[in-house]
Design a protein that fits this description.
By secondary structure, this protein is α/β, with parallel strands linked by helices. The chain has a single domain (2-190), classed as Type I PLP-dependent aspartate aminotransferase-like (Major domain) (Aspartate Aminotransferase, domain 2). The protein is built from 6 helices and 8 strands. The protein has an 8-stranded mixed β-sheet, with helices on both faces. The longest helix is centred in the C-terminal third of the chain and has 14 residues, at 177-190.
Length: 194
């Protein structure tokens, strides 16, 4: 797992990786830990349908921020955040698929990823970076993950299900240490031996 993450620029400790039964399971664990009913999760519009289902199963209010041919639009994200805050609502997470977005298929360039990270950082919003397709490049090296430059404000989700074997339900979450400890406890409560 560490070798795979190194391909997208992430250099991590094994201690900060939580192995799950697919990245969908990791997504569910993060949502269970962070989201209270009525909390806002920002997501690209459109976004991965099953992630939206998970968020809504925990009674989150998913608010979409527009995309264009380059992915999530930074200025639109700023406007969405300002609108949600003006309504007095809490934003818990920004859910993003920056590489080969599902369903749009677009990949954010590095400058846009950095701008989105800065927007999230300045608004104290935790980024949930879902990267199931990041290694699917054929003619160039994979894009670096947001997590490669931001270790405290990003939870990175990965999986082998889209790149090595669809039947192999192995995923992981790479999280800051304090979050990782909570993910481990939640994972142990869900499955006794991942």
């Amino acid at each position: 797992i560490l070798d795979v993450m190194a391909l997208v620029g992430i250099h991590a400790s094994p201690d900060d990786v939580v192995v799950t039964t697919g990245s969908q399971h990791a997504l569910e664990l993060v949502t269970k830990l962070f989201v209270d009913p009525g909390d806002v999760i920002l997501a690209e519009g459109p976004s991965y349908v099953t992630a939206l289902t998970v968020f809504r199963s925990f009674q989150a209010d998913v608010v979409h921020s527009p995309m264009d041919a380059g992915g999530l639009v930074p200025e639109a994200l700023r406007e969405t955040i300002a609108r949600v805050k003006a309504e007095g609502r809490r934003i818990k997470l920004l859910y993003t698929i920056p590489s080969f977005h599902n369903p749009m298929g677009v990949t954010q360039d590095w400058a846009r990823r950095q701008e989105i990270l800065e927007i999230a950082r300045s608004n104290d919003i935790l980024v949930l970076e879902d990267d199931p397709y990041g290694l699917l490049y054929f003619d160039q090296p994979p894009a670096h993950a947001m997590r490669s430059v931001e270790s405290e404000g990003v939870i990175y989700l990965g999986t082998f299900s889209k790149t090595i074997s669809p039947g192999m339900r192995v995923g992981w979450a790479l999280a800051p240490h304090a979050i990782r400890e909570k993910l481990v406890l939640a994972n142990e409560a869900a499955v006794l031996s991942p």
